[in-house]
Amino acid sequence: YRAKVSGRNSWQVHPQHNDPAADRLRRVGELRHGIERGELVLHYQPRIELDGGAVHSAEALVRWQHPTRGLLSPGEFIELAEDSGLVRELGAWVLEAAVAEAAGWQPVAGRRLGVAVNLSPRQLGDRNMVRLVTDALQRHRLDPSLLTLEITETALMLDPDAALRSLQALARLGVVLAVDDFGTGYSSLTYLKRFPIDELKIDQSFVAGLGVSDGDEAIVASCVQLAHAIGIHAVAEGVETDAQRASLAALGCDLAQGYLYSRPVPVDEFLRWCAAQG
Ligand code: C2E
Ligand code: MG
Ligand code: MG
Ligand code: MG
């Protein structure tokens, strides 16, 4: 950071404070080291079948165990990872860790338990993605149908034609493809129909409005109907109350996840939770 020294026409180098560019560079370096030093961890949130209440799978949600700032949630570093390109390393680590973990779960209490992984927009455009997924599945011998890849509606619509090609390549592997945060972006139904999607995840902002807002209730109902009309599953995220669960079940929604069942927790806690479900 260079500041003008008062009264003289010369520049002096100062320690990096108040300089957003230097601060960003420092934070990128810190995240790169964090990834290299193994400071990322995955927490898992169960996804439950609304008809019958069985555990279906878990969503893997990344956290950063920062050496001084504590456990950071993705809201505090995913954007930086995406903008700096570090999301390639981060995403590769998440995929590898989640697939390895899920391969070790089989079978849990006599049931097959899947895992869902979030992909960032940049990962979707990464030509290496199909290779990474194929390798991870083969190395850990996980059935592709037990891996769900979640892509936000916004990421899909950034470049729908490129997204379509990536999704087609991923679909050929036999993995499950989900549209995340559905209803918050601007997706065209034409694309939705063309994309090889298996699952719509209804955004938690609409789920929160169940029983409160007639508008949100109508949106959730249409999302479930739309999903079923094109032959795919509907998943509700952010389910916090039993009343929300009951409305979703009445609407025929297939899967639910949210604090009502469990917060995202470390893997051992998740497995104990599963065991306690009987
Ligand atoms: P998402 O995929 O839509 O994940 C759902 C978020 O809602 C998670 O926040 C989860 O902890 C939170 N949540 C779950 N149940 C409830 C509930 O009942 N009530 C409320 N209020 N919130 C609930 P989290 O873990 O902070 O993750 C935020 C976002 O970060 C995720 O949104 C996802 O887009 C992104 N993300 C997480 N892990 C990864 C990753 O490994 N890679 C990439 N690229 N993105 C990730
Ligand atoms: Mg997700
Ligand atoms: Mg979501
Ligand atoms: Mg969301």
UniProtKB/TrEMBL annotation:
It comes from the Bacteria. Residues 24-278 form the EAL domain. This is EAL domain-containing protein. It comes from Nakamurella endophytica. The lineage of its organism: Bacteria, Bacillati, Actinomycetota, Actinomycetes, Nakamurellales. The chain holds residues 307 to 584 of 584 of the full protein.
